[in-house]
Automatic annotation (TrEMBL):
Keywords: ATP-binding, Chaperone, Hydrolase, Nucleotide-binding, Protease, Zinc. This is ATP-dependent Clp protease ATP-binding subunit ClpX. It comes from the Bacteria. Residues 328-422 form the Clp ATPase C-terminal domain. Residues 121-304 form the AAA+ ATPase domain. GO terms for cellular component: HslUV protease complex.
Length: 425
């Protein structure tokens, strides 16, 4: 039986519509006769899309106006001066990050104010340095200075789609929540992917025939995000399925910084450098003591070394800025203990001052703390933990009395576990 065609007037445009199916008259109330035809709905939808697009453009222009102020306040030398107050050494890394951030904001300004077809590509950064050398600390202080959303995601927890684990979209979702659920703020933030070396493909330069869900697949999934694409994700706690409401964030203006210890990268660099003059009568024979140190090698890293390590070429192409950090020696760790604004020793001095107690660390005691951190091979990360162990009994006993005192930490306290000296003032 053929479908019967009925006619009805649209309440908006007043046209008589031949209704063959529900899509000719999507909105219809049989009780009142109120109806809206598909043409009117299309026009209203088109008007709303134009309005939304114009609103986004206006917001971009407002942000572009604010960028002048941001750029004036955050010139590279100003950023480095600020980082110098909190981070000891790593001058090269500070310069690289200062320039990368400044250029990132200049790129945004150019994109908002010019429409000449020229697109300045993102200067995403890859940071290489041993554990505890200050990679995360550098970025957390940088984000405080810039007053923009900053989110750290552990890359080793990511897996490619279809496997148990976190999808790569989690990095953008973390930034969205760091921006207090403000999509526009999130779209101008910084994402730091920590432990990035853990997603290097296991087979290095040679591909593997076995499933590698936490490695090369994750790198492939990150490609579009690093380049700049719209990432869709569900809110926290919601499972991913076709009907789940999603949030969309454009990563075009998000600066990606990836970092890791890249354990063994110095061997890869040394192998490449030794190939030039390691064979033949003219080759120099190196003894064990003649081999270059980690700090000498790490600054000579090249993209081909990262490829050999297991980072795919496409990812390296999207991380044009290579930032290297040195190991921290005893003198550097000693300065970290006392010089920065938030130095561990200063923190404990302030805590004890609240109980009317002065705290004094003798220099040989501080050097003993630094040596212990070097032995643990965890860099500056373990300094506070070592002091915490020594200070535990003092922090427990001091509040028993309100009388003014002075606590002296000696070398014996660090190396032999002796009790700190407590002197009445």
């Amino acid at each position: 039986m053929a479908n019967q065609t009925m006619q009805h007037q649209c309440s908006f445009c007043k046209r008589i519509i031949n209704v063959r199916d529900q899509y000719d008259l999507p909105i219809y109330d049989p009780n009142t006769g109120f109806a809206i035809c598909r043409n009117c709905i299309k026009e209203v939808n088109h008007f709303l899309e134009e309005h939304d697009a114009a609103q986004v453009q206006d917001e971009k222009q407002v942000f572009a106006g604010e960028l002048d102020d941001i750029l004036n306040k955050n010139k590279p030398h100003i950023i480095k001066q600020y980082l110098d107050e909190y981070i000891i050494n790593q001058d090269r890394a500070k310069k690289i990050l200062s320039v990368a951030v400044y250029n990132h904001y200049k790129r945004m300004k150019y994109g908002y104010q010019n429409d000449d077809g020229t697109e300045i590509e993102k200067s995403n950064v890859i940071m290489l340095g041993p554990s505890g050398c200050g990679k995360t600390a550098l970025l957390s202080h940088l984000s405080k200075l810039l007053d923009i959303p900053f989110a750290v995601t552990d890359a080793s927890s990511l897996t490619e789609a279809g496997f148990v684990g976190a999808d790569v979209e989690v990095a953008v979702r973390n930034l969205y929540y760091a921006a207090d659920k403000d999509v526009e703020k999130a779209e101008h933030g910084i994402i730091y992917l920590d432990e990035f070396d853990k997603i290097a493909r296991k087979s290095g330069a040679n591909n593997s025939i076995t499933a590698d869900p936490g490695h090369e697949g994750v790198q492939q999934a990150l490609l579009k995000m690093l380049e700049g694409s719209v990432v869709e994700f569900t809110s926290r706690g919601q499972r991913k399925h076709p009907e789940a409401p999603t949030i969309k964030v454009d990563t075009k203006n998000i600066l990606f910084i990836v970092g890791g210890a890249f354990v063994g990268i110095d061997d890869v660099i040394a192998k490449r450098l030794s190939k030039t003059s390691s064979i033949g009568f003219g080759a120099e024979i190196q003894g064990k003591d003649d081999k270059p140190k980690f700090d000498e090698l790490i600054h000579k890293v090249r993209p081909e070394d990262l490829m050999q390590y297991g980072i795919i070429p496409e990812i390296i192409g999207r991380l044009p800025v290579i930032c290297t950090l040195e190991t921290l020696d005893e003198d550097a760790l000693l300065r970290i203990l006392t010089e920065p604004k938030n130095a561990p020793v200063k923190q404990y001095e302030k805590l004890l001052a609240m109980d009317n107690v002065d705290l004094e660390f003798q220099e040989d005691a501080l050097r003993a703390v630094a040596r212990k951190a070097i032995e643990r091979k965890t860099g500056a990360r373990s300094l506070k933990g070592i002091i915490e162990d020594i200070m535990l009994d003092v922090m427990f006993d001091i509040p028993k009395s309100n009388e003014p005192r002075k606590v002296i930490i000696t070398k014996a306290c660090i190396e032999e576990g002796a009790a700190p000296e407590v002197v009445k003032k």
